[in-house]
Amino acid sequence: MGKFQSKIMAAVLLCTGALPAFAADDFGMSYAVEAEHKITKRASVGAEVELRTRNSSRTLDRWSGALSVEYKLCKPLKVSAGYSLLYDNNQEKITYTPEGDIRKWRPGHWSTRSRWQVSVSGNVDVGRLNLSLRERWQFTFRPEKTVDRYDFIDKEWERDDVASKRRHVLRSKLEAEYNIRHCKFTPFVNGELFNSMALDKARFQVGTSYKIGKQHVLKAYYQYQVVNEDDDDEECNSHMVGFSYKFKF
User: Fold this and answer.
1) DSSP state of 233
2) What is each CA distance from 192 to 73, 87, 144, 203, 206, in whole angstroms?
């Protein structure tokens, strides 16, 4: 078993309570507001706005807005498609000389990304337990951007071109929900794998949703993410606590 696979196994045990909590590379929060409108018995549209933090929740990490459409093919199977606009707070980048001195410093900067996705999901009830599997293809595009960078050797600011980036990812998510009799709380646990050319990262969540009537749903969860060190993305292993509100009409 490789090093990354070992981390995934440790994360699974952590989320199921078999291991004590351990310190992660980072901690952040997620806050989301969603709206869903049912057009027909099978078709619905949705919108979502989300804010994320990082750096022990001291730094804004990302704003995002998303639009989606969903269609139920039959009772257990549905398809969906969506678009998201992401506004990212990119981390600073430092390069060093062979002697270990700072060569160049690029401050953190904000940039946008566009994301398209198509999903197929199905679910089955086993007693009061609901099991669901979702497969999602995701394409993200980051346009080229020119930012400032400081050269410590020449003692001057210069322009640095951040190259555009295209990324295809297959996201596979397995989730289990338990319907407690005569209770508005619905606990859940899930795991999600992100694959491009290889397994890039994995996320594990445990939490609960709470229904307020037929139109309002609150959700709270804990998430652990483990990242493949060979991946060239800027993410890291992290804990996250998230809260969301959903309005159905």
Assistant:
1) S
2) 23, 23, 29, 5, 12
Residue range 160-178, pLDDT digits in tens = 999 999 999 999 999 999 9
Q: Which residues contact 99 (CB under 8 A, 6 or more apart)?
A: none
Q: Note whether 15 and 189 are within 8 A (CB).
A: yes
| Mean predicted lDDT score pLDDT of the chain | 91
pTM of the predicted model, to two decimals? 0.86
Do 91 and 234 meet the contact criterion of CB atoms below 8 Å apart?
yes
Mean pLDDT of the region 119-134: 97
Q: What is the pLDDT of residues 175-189, one digit of tens each?
A: 999 999 999 999 999
Report DSSP letters for 162-187, one per residue.
Answer: EPPEEEEEEEEEEEEEE--TT-SEEE
Please state, in angstroms and rounded to a whole number, the distance separating the CA atoms of residues 155 and 143.
Answer: 29
**Reduced to 3 states, what is the DSSP secondary structure of residue 11?**
helix
